[in-house]
Amino acid sequence: MRDGKPLRHIVLIGFMGTGKSTVGRLLAERLACAACDVDAEIVKREGEAIPAIFANRGEREFRAAETAALGAVLGADDTLVVATGGGAVLSPENRELMLRHGFVVALTADPEQVIARVSQDENRPLLQGDLRERVYKLLEDRKHAYDFAHMTIDTTHLGVDEVVERIAQGFIRSISQHSI
């Protein structure tokens, strides 16, 4: 809740390959609202693909663009389901924005499931090199980065519809608790 009002958006956080984009689209359909992928918003705003931003400007510039895009998206008046990039939680400013404007849901998955899900995706600049080694290292580095979420769901053994339903119910409970 912010300023006495229920949280307006649902913000999906989690490591890459946990299902944020897929769950986000289906959750938005379920709730009859719009979905927004922050990575897609960055590409639109910057006019450059994410791997190109990393290559040409570096991770620091990418993270600044990410914060700007996240702030713009979360400033929307209409309810959105917002899928963030896996590293969006690294910035304290981003975490504060998410908590101020949204019901934050962390999606997790077993490391081997993450590897299987991202192994064919060449648009992941942080996974260049030994994929298995990079995934395990990043997961270790970020093991507590998602702890601030209102709700956490392990997607390893759940179907997308099950994940969507759990989030929808959690969001609805959150709204009803604040409207009493």
UniProtKB/TrEMBL annotation:
Pathway: Metabolic intermediate biosynthesis; chorismate biosynthesis; chorismate from D-erythrose 4-phosphate and phosphoenolpyruvate: step 5/7. It catalyses: shikimate + ATP = 3-phosphoshikimate + ADP + H(+). ATP binds at G17, T18, G19, K20, S21, T22, R124. Its EC number is 2.7.1.71. Binds 1 Mg(2+) ion per subunit. It is found in: Cytoplasm. Catalyzes the specific phosphorylation of the 3-hydroxyl group of shikimic acid using ATP as a cosubstrate. Monomer. This is Shikimate kinase. The gene is aroK.
